[in-house]
Structures are given as C-alpha cells and as structure tokens.
Design goal:
It is a single chain. The protein is of the alpha+beta class. Helices cover 21% and strands 29% of the residues. The chain has five helices and 15 strands. β2 and β3 form a beta hairpin. The strands form three sheets. It has a six-stranded mixed beta sheet with strand order 1-2-3-15-7-4. It has a six-stranded mixed beta sheet with strand order 5-6-9-8-10-14. The relative contact order is 0.20. The longest helix is centred in the N-terminal third of the chain and has 15 residues. It has one domain: CNF1/YfiH-like putative cysteine hydrolases, CATH 3.60.140.10. Bound molecules: zinc ion (ZN). Zinc ion binds next to loops. The site of zinc ion has 6 residues, from loops.
Length: 244
C-alpha cells in the first residue's frame, strides 16, 4: 500500500511493502530534479534536507543519465556518472540512488536477503525493452537474487485513464507479455495502455510475487506529481529514491 510521509515537512510517497528499505517518491514540494531556473533554489534546499535525512554526503546522492534505454548498471562508490543507464542497482550503504520521472513508470526493486536494491525507469520504450525485468535479471546473475523473494514498488506514473498511444507502441508493449488481459482499453477508437500493470505483469511472468502498484496517475494527480504530457514537456521531475 502506498502512503504519504514527510521529510522536513515536505510530502513524499512510500510503499508499505518496502519496509526495511530507505525509499520514497518525491512530490512537487520535495522536488530534487529540474532544469527550470525557477525551481533551482528549492531543489538545492530539498537535496540538503534529503541528504541530512538519509545521513549521506551530498556527493553520494547520485542518478544515472536516463535515455530510455534498457541498460542496467551497478552503482560504485566514487562514480557519479552513468551514461545511457535506465536501471541502477545499489549494493553499498554510502550512496543513495535516485531516478527521475514525469509520466514514465518508476520501479523500485528490493532484495532484503542480499540487502541490495535498484530503481528502473520504464517509459514506453523502457517497458518495451523490459527494463525492470533486465534489472531483476542482473540482480539474479550478479548477486544471486531470487525473484520470489523480491519486493517491488511501481510508483506514480501516467495511468490507463490518460495514456493513449499509437498502434505501433501498443503492439511493442503487448509483445513483452504472455497474458495481455487488463493491460489496455480501446475508447472511442483510441488505444489506452496501463504501463504500471504491464511492468507488473512482466515481473510476475519471471516469478516476482510481491508487487505494490501506486494508484496515482501523474496527469490526474498533477497537483502532486509532474507530467510531461500535461505540462508541455516540463523538465521538472519527481524522483524515486533508495538508500540501503
Ligand atoms: Zn489519469
């Protein structure tokens, strides 16, 4: 279940399934990623508050340069630059990892047995490339994670209510799963897809059982989160943050 919490009086969203992992999804008021000049001061302030809250040095609050790939990497102490990376696995306690979103689907993956975690960025391209599954597969290969023991939280994203796509995108997405029921709707001749549930289905099909899906749509709940579609290609982002 998703619920609201606060960091220094500013709203964040958390999943009760990820108990044991330091994690949260930022909202408009706890924003830590932007290119808009008007938001730079608040981002700076929020980053300071979040690093204090997580008890880390600000240079260790890191994010990969997301480019809608399905490339997954492992965070390394002292390395802050992860080009063309849309899934990042965290295995150390010094760093905190965050990925940034405005409509695309955030997926946090937690392996409490091995004490490692990851965040993936699944827009339609990432979802078509099965970025969340690729992240889990890397955790399995490199660290012996067992999909049945993983806990995943799928964060706020543009939802079935608002996400209309072309036929080509729809087909690429449906190709990624065996069972396609409940993943799309046709309304007035337009195709609407449910990226959150497609990611959930992909994870279920490789054996993940515990998956918490955030009910919030970034378009319908634009007062809380950022939406690339609704806000004319805004560069403001909400973030999915993890720290071991
Ligand atoms: Zn919506």
């Amino acid at each position: 279940m998703f619920y609201f919490d606060e960091i220094n009086g500013k709203k964040v969203v958390k999943s009760s399934l990820l108990e044991g992992l330091n994690h949260f999804f930022t909202t408009r008021e706890s924003i830590i990623k932007t290119k808009e000049p008007d938001f730079k001061a608040i981002v700076c302030e929020n980053k300071k508050d979040i690093c204090k809250f997580l008890n880390i040095d600000e240079k260790n609050l890191i994010y990969p340069s997301q480019t809608h790939t399905s490339n997954v990497d492992i965070a390394k102490i002292g390395i802050n630059n992860y080009p063309d990376t849309d899934g990042l696995i965290l295995t150390n306690k010094e760093q905190a990892v965050f990925l940034n979103f405005a409509d695309c689907t955030p997926v946090i993956i937690y392996d409490s047995s091995n004490n490692i975690a990851a965040v993936s960025h699944a827009g339609w391209r990432g979802t078509a490339g099965k970025i969340a599954v690729k992240t889990v597969e890397k955790m399995m290969k490199e660290f012996g994670s067992n999909p049945k023991e993983l806990k995943c939280a799928i964060g706020p994203a543009i939802s079935l209510c608002c996400y209309n796509v072309g036929k080509d995108v729809y087909e690429k997405l449906m190709d990624t799963v065996k069972l396609q029921d409940g993943l799309f709707e046709i309304r007035k001749g337009e195709i609407f897809v449910d990226l959150k549930t497609i990611n959930k289905r992909q994870l279920e099909e490789i054996g993940v059982k515990d998956i918490d899906v955030c009910p919030y749509c970034t378009v319908c709940n634009n007062d809380l989160f950022f939406s690339y579609r609704k806000e004319n290609a805004t560069t403001n982002r909400h973030s999915a943050v993890i720290k071991l």
